[in-house]
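Posting here for the record, re: pyridoxal-5'-phosphate.
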Amino acid sequence: MEPAARSGGPVNRTRLGELTARETRRFAAAHPRCAAAHERSRRSMPGGVPMSWMAKWAGGFPIAVAEAAGAHLRCLDGHDHVDLCLGDTGAMAGHSPAPTVRAVAAQAARGITTMLPGEDAAAVAEELARRFGLPAWQFTLTATDANRHVLRYARHLTGRRKIAVIDYCYHGSVDEAFATLDRSGAVVARRGNLGPPVAPELTTVVVPFNDVAALERALAGGEVACLLAEPAMTNIGIVLPEPGWHAAARALTRAAGTLLVLDETHTLCAGPGGATRADGLEPDLLVVGKAIGGGVPVGAFGMTAELAERIPASVELEDVDLGGVGGTLAGSPLSLAATRATLAEVLTDATFGHMVELGRRWEAGVAGVLARYGLPWHVTRLGCRAEYGFAADPPRDGAAAAAADDFALQTYLHLHALNRGVLLTPFHNMALMSPATTAADVDRHTEVFDRAAGDLLG
Ligand SMILES: Cc1ncc(COP(=O)(O)O)c(C=O)c1O
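Prediction output follows.
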């Protein structure tokens, strides 16, 4: 088991406890309607939430949303919030962007799901090919599904059993990825891994991010079908690649006959073609999801021309619906209409410029507060996504990022922000900018973060 996290530097724990209790009382007093909605929900849903992880919001119960539009969200109690969480990237295009809403409404009126292609599918595939440089695409309902399918194809095509993942990665609810390294370097289940189908060491090899020698050792036995990795880690805070990591990972995977899969679901924040385009990366397969549908469920995976030929050639037509790759609603007209409009009119090259600029502003605001109070924390940014962490220096791998985690401190900071109308992603300290986010939204966070730090140290 990983220990419960607690770092945070010069934070007085008694004061932290008192402040969290104060903020919890304030939250409850300001949200009677949200509390009542939660009470009702508890009678029909475990934890009172439609999906278990929604219980992780600070405050004891989640706010219930009355309406979300652009970069703002209003709860049942009528409070306006700047939404820097944006559905943990699902709403990176902003809530209900007008072009997506129009396309969804038009498509909903002429067929929501058909299990047949329309014209939008090829248009989306062509646009993804233009952005990411891979020519052939398939569509799913979620990025998790896209990852699962890619792992199956990788094992199928290489005839190898194992998958390599990065220590402390997250790729959705993908069984192979819930593995970490224990102190002796052995592969073990991640803390919280529910009912793993088999022991993770049977399916998975784990490599610390930025550790070229470890990757070389992991691939040396020739039993790894693919390396599944984010271009930069985004789910344990942001951990950026060191110079040389990507070139080495590409060269080592090629030499070992291991496919390289880049999961750009979150790192799309780096630009319109993700980190792959921004940094000239050359994956064999690429996964993307969440944001590209403007909030409508969709996932996609792209592949090289060679793989696009080998896959259909290696599967009997009679078996294509039975191989563990699929999903009845995958590639639905509704998903693809939403994705076409979102890519063409919302998450465009031009809007990324605005989003990245705001990411810089958020980063500078947080850095200013840390400097003012002498807090030994850091702030990191990847395009329009930024994040602070409770260690003086940015971590170079997932284990270092996890060691700097501090759940109690994070809970206080999130709740303090929530009480003042700013939503941060519950799982860590991430802020994301959408095309609809404004400089005033960012400055509101800086102001609130300043007060939280002042209360903590004052
Ligand atoms: C990098 C990455 N890949 C895949 C996923 C899975 O996305 P979804 O939950 O939409 O399937 C996530 C979810 O957070 C993610 O962070």
